[in-house]
Amino acid sequence: MPDARKKSRLPLTATLAYALAATGWIVIGFFMSSLLDDGGTTSMFELYKGLAFVAVTGCLLFIVLRLMDSGTATDATFGQLAEEFRQSIRIGERTMRWLPPGLALIVIALFCLLLLGLYWTRNNTLEAGERSADALQYTIAAQTGSAIQVIDLTLGEIAHELAESRTQDPDAELRRRMERVPALVSAIRVLDGDGRLIHDSDRGAPGTDFSSRDYFRHHRDSGNSGFFIGEPLRSLSTDTWFISASHPVRAADGRLLGVVVAAIGMERFARFWQLPGLDNNSSIAVFRSDGTLLMRSPHAGEQIGKSFSDAGFWRERVSGQDRGLYHGASGIDGQTRIFGFGRVPGYPQLLVFVGISEDHLLSPWRRLAAISVGSFLIFAGLVLILAFILLRQLRMRIQSQKRAAELARYPLQNRNPVFSVSHRGERLFMNDAARRLFQEHRGSAEAQQLDTVIQEIAAANASGSREFTMGARSYSASFVSHADCCDVYLMETTALRQGEGLLQLFFDLPFIGMATSSPETKRWLRCNDRLCEILGHPREQLLQKSWPEMTHPDDLAGDLANFERVMRGEADGYMMDKRFLRPDGTSVDVAMNVRAVRRPDRSVELFMCTVQDITERRQRELQLRRQRNLYATLSATHEAIIRLRDRESLFTRICRIAVEEAGFAFAW
User: Fold this and answer.
1) CA dist., res. 32 & res. 60, Å (int)
2) How far from each other are the two terminal CA atoms of the chain, in whole angstroms?
């Protein structure tokens, strides 16, 4: 008989499931990477590469599964079908043993790769944030330097004209010369050589003494000093913060004639810092080289004018450097940012800090990580569910193959009829039992009936079982369909049918408990009155229970071990003494004899069990054991007393001899 195994759909189903799951994963990854790469050529290349990988691995998976599913027996006519089954079973069991850990390792490896990819993406995002912070710092420093330079040049020209007495209206001169940045300076004042107010655009009282201000003292004490940025001040009239930018008014001989002071409004100056790439959580700050905070956006009024030269970030990262980058918590509001700092071009005494919020920078990465991990978990869950289904199907297939191999192990020596027929009804193979069956009924109506049943089974092209009668005999047929033939296994069930009446007689016996139970649910299927009396349950309640839940916990493990041996086909029954629990909590000792009733495929159809109450015998055995223990104890005590008496007699004789030797008369 040629290879008669029916082609399985497992390879094609598993390959299609793998292709769908992997393609979905790759497409999801493409859309997520497109969010970062804006659909660039790199994302398209990764998509094509992933789809090609799925196509190649899918073909390889189909080929491997097809080879695993295909048989190797070339001639099953004379009993080699069992060898084919054994080889298929070995491959299936090897697959079931190694597939779960292998799949777990693959899932863990993919998850680790995903985490590494997310870690690499996070680092790239932070590096991009560092580059952005450095570029923004450079841009803002340049803008700040340009704006301050305009103020510096304007104040210098006004101071020069004041020194030569060519202008009497500093406000008009300031507005005329600062057309490019008219909103930077909120007020201007002119002081004389003694620090008294001469002119104030805020209408300050003339003659007010400003000689204690740091900018006046700086110009007075520094000789030919030029432009100077003073400490932040708060306006008493508007309650707003500003920075004083000043320039000295000097005579030709260098004598200080006065000081021109411009008030740079912080809120006005912050308008120049509205750049793309900065969110509400980012910050921009200008410090003096001594660590004094001059201005900041967003505004932090309680920190303005405070020196940060003793702060850790200033000592460790800023001190002595002209430009740099660092990650850390802000010393002002405590938020973690990526900071880029550098000196203002042309004004090295000023440093610009740009801080980009890490939360804002990493928010797209967090979304990507959440989507990636969530998608991977869904993908891994689908793969595990698919693997569970495949393993379950494979386990069922191995079990059915084991049963078939058990039936087809020795077809020539099988005492039951075994034969193979084509789907057209042609007999390809018969063992001796099948040949004798046909010879016995040759030419009779029974033979014609048997041929009709066999042709119907072959034409159905399916596997299963069927019962039929042939004359006065009953038969059960189990059949396995293959690609071009069908193997049929017959078993005569006439005696079994006739034995049902005898079984009923045994069930009606009043002196022994009898029952049948299901191998799947372990519930009682049928029981007699004696068993209900032994177990103390009415018949209706007993049929609702299973024997494991009524077994004493100390005896359950041994009973289940014997049960599993029978289910595995290693035995057809077992005998044991055990205890059952009654409804009142007491236990009853029984001697139990269990036998399995098997189907033609060697699977267990039901269990038959006889139960005998041995409680009185156990009590007598226990009493006898106690008596034996008592007798052993008494015997040991008696021997100890005898040994003690013998030792006392020996002691007495020794004393008597000693006295006689001493010459004393001693009466005993």
Assistant:
1) 28
2) 109
d(CA 138, CA 341): 8
φ/ψ (deg, to 5) at 211: -70, -15
Paired sense of beta strands 336-344 and 464-470, if any? unpaired
CB neighbour list of residue 395: distance below 8 Å, 6 or more residues apart: 96
Torsion of CA 202, 207, 210, 216, to 10 degrees: 100
Beta bridge partners of 466: 477
* In the predicted structure, residue 409 carries a pLDDT above the cut 50: no
What is the pLDDT of the chain when averaged over all its residues? 76
Which tokens sit at 440? Answer: 């016995």
- 8 A C-beta contact, residue 335 and residue 357: yes
Residue 651 pLDDT class (50, 70, 90 cuts): low
Least confident of 452-461, 483-492, 633-642, 655-664: 655-664
Please check the confidence at residue 241 and state whether its pLDDT lies above 80. no
Alpha-carbon distance 663 to 544, whole Å? 95
If DSSP states are collapsed to H, E and C, what string results for 280-342? CCCEEEEEECCCEEEEEECCCHHHCCCECCCCHHHHHHHCCCCEEEEEEECCCCCCEEEEEEE
Q: What is the crossing angle of helices 358-407 and 10-37, to 10°?
A: 180
Q: Where are the beta strands (DSSP E) in 374-450?
A: 418-421, 427-430
Task: Work out the angle at residue 418's Cα, subtended by the Cα atoms of residues 414 and 421, and round it to the nearest 5 degrees.
Answer: 160
**Residue appearing with tokens 């007598």:** 620
